[in-house]
Amino acid sequence: MNVLETKEVSYKYPDGTPALKDVNFHASKGEIVALLGPNGAGKSTLFLHFNGILRPSSGKIMVEEVPLNYNKKAIMNVRQKVGIVFQNPDDQLFAPTVAEDVAFGPLNIGLEQDEVEKRVTESLERVGMAGFERKPPHHLSGGQKKRVAIAGILAMRPGIMVLDEPTSGLDPKGASQILHILHQLNQEGMTIVISTHDVDLVPLYASQVYIISDGHIIKEGTPQDVFGDV
Ligand code: ADP
Ligand code: ADP
């Protein structure tokens, strides 16, 4: 099943910048899909369509084979299915403590306090950040912030996680911790979509690769199709 799909999606920013042109993209359930491309290619713009933050100028977004609906309730619903981790964790972490940050989403959808606490504990454990509950997020390292941002998404229990440049700016150890977490989540059935410009890492984990340039998908397939034998 295609859990996430775009059909002929084009997008122009309000200032007229064309950012996406006729993009056809899909992720099947349980896959890891990598989106590769240089800065300004349209990766972030595409991701912002996946949970309705941006609405296509033309074309359609499908989540679990249902076209995205843009009323408030449907958007709340889709954000529980598709979690987006932004490139810069400072765009995502704004509460005074780590625990409050991770609790934000679950509280926002009206879960009971007990359930919220349970999810915060579980999610922080999953990303190796148990014990940091009371720390202010801005005191953490880049890799730790990234992991807290991932915990905040996990606390919503989405089936699909979309991560914009999850390893950018991290040292090799921080990057490998993130990849390890993503690999584990995928083993448990989560569909994962990531953007990166780190070509070397892609064949190690992705089952499908898309290359985007100047708002167009220019290549897609398995890592072997796209890069040849590696
Ligand atoms: P990437 O994530 O691959 O670096 P983006 O999706 O951020 O690429 O950008 C795609 C194109 O859209 C670029 O030309 C970029 O300058 C432009 N763009 C991004 N955000 C905006 C915005 N808010 N307003 C106008 N143009 C934008
Ligand atoms: P990324 O590579 O993750 O897309 P960028 O550096 O392209 O990051 O963009 C950082 C921020 O600036 C984003 O919020 C993006 O929407 C905005 N932005 C990028 N290009 C433009 C632009 N041409 N006009 C207005 N905002 C832009």
Automatic annotation (TrEMBL):
KW DNA damage (keyword) present: no
Bilayer topology term: Peripheral membrane protein
GO MF annotation list: ATP binding; ATP hydrolysis activity; ATPase-coupled transmembrane transporter activity
Protein name (Swiss-Prot/TrEMBL): ABC transporter ATP-binding protein
Keyword Methyltransferase included in the entry's annotation: no
Range covered out of full length: 1 to 230 of 277
Organism: Methanobacterium subterraneum
Residues covered by the ABC transporter domain: 4-230
Source organism, top-level taxon: Archaea
Biological process per Gene Ontology, one example term: cobalt ion transport
